[in-house]
Design brief:
Layout (H helix, E strand, L loop, with lengths): L2 H12 L5 H13 L1 H22 L8 H18 L6 H13 L12 H21 L10 H7 L14 E4 L2 E13 L2 E10 L2 E9 L15 E7 L2 E8 L2 E7 L3 H11 L1 H9 L13
Antiparallel strand pairs: 1-2, 2-3, 3-4, 4-7, 5-6, 6-7
Helix pairs in contact: 1-3, 2-3, 4-5
Length: 284
């Protein structure tokens, strides 16, 4: 990968349209080339500013007549082409979701709180594998100060929490990186840590409003996933966010680590005055 190659592929890369192998080459080149890193960061800032200007301009919002017509056409096409029966309510939900994508990036979520938790665990595992273990990102990580300003102020806490080095009964926990990234449409604040010979991810994300009922915001770790392919997931919920710890440790040991690095962060989050994350976090 040369500087000329990167300039040719930069906009395609930022649109998440390059192959995983190309992404790896680009990220490796950017790590070594300050000039290309600055160029890519500048392009991303311009795209972010344009996107924000577009999404916050009332004059650019789709007219109500357009969304109504689009919804009607989607329903008509779906009823005509769908080979199996489906309820009118289901089609309305599907059509409404498709209409929303005309102006916003969204995710289809089920009505079940259990399904929401399963999706969260799946995304946390996927982000840990792709970002922390395999370095197969489809888009550049976002620095935490910028992510805090654009997506969620809570990410600002991750700039200092957990500390760069923490003592644990089994050894030292050392922070290797801090940034924001995304997996399958879900935005995470991500702190990558090393614990003995294990890579552990701390992931903060907005909790779906549909998963909010009955969620225990007690800053106590709860084992929610694992072992899945050797990985376990522990979650702590606070102030409309979920903070997850993911790693190839036994559930009990990962839960103990969560008490050391996640619980203090959750307590700070619960004491902070922050806007709702659900309305601000969206994968770009």
């Amino acid at each position: 990968m040369t500087c000329r190659d990167l300039r040719h592929l930069a906009d395609v890369f930022l649109s998440a349209e390059t192959a995983p192998e190309t992404n790896h080459d680009i990220l490796r080149h950017v790590d070594m080339c300050a000039s290309c890193r600055a160029d890519l960061d500048g392009r991303r800032r311009v795209r972010t500013a344009l996107r924000r200007a577009f999404t916050t301009a009332p004059a650019l919002a789709p007219p109500l007549e357009f969304t109504a017509d689009l919804r009607r056409h989607l329903l008509e096409d779906a009823r005509r082409d769908q080979p199996w029966p489906m309820s009118r309510r289901s089609w309305l939900g599907l059509a409404a979701g498709l209409v929303l994508t005309a102006g916003l990036t969204g995710r289809l979520m089920t009505d079940s709180a259990d399904s929401s938790v399963d999706a969260l665990v799946r995304d946390a595992l996927g982000d840990h594998r792709n970002c922390a273990l395999q370095h197969r990102l489809t888009r550049m990580p976002v620095p935490l100060p910028e992510a805090a300003a654009e997506f969620d102020e809570a990410y600002r806490l991750l700039m200092t929490a957990p500390p760069d080095e923490v003592s644990a009964p089994g050894g030292r926990i050392r922070v290797r990186g801090r940034h924001a990234c995304a997996y399958d449409g879900r935005r995470f604040g991500h702190v990558i840590m090393q614990y003995r010979d294990h890579t552990v991810s701390l992931l903060m994300t907005a909790r779906s409003s549909r998963a909010g009922a009955g969620v225990r915001e007690d800053a106590i770790p709860h084992l929610v996933g694992g072992p899945a392919s050797g990985l376990s997931v522990v979650s702590v919920d606070a102030s409309g966010r979920s903070i997850l710890l993911v790693g190839d440790l036994e559930g009990a040991e990962l839960t103990n680590l969560s008490r050391i690095v996640v619980t203090p962060l959750a307590q700070r989050l619960m004491g902070a005055v922050l806007p709702s994350a659900v309305t601000r976090i969206a994968a770009r």
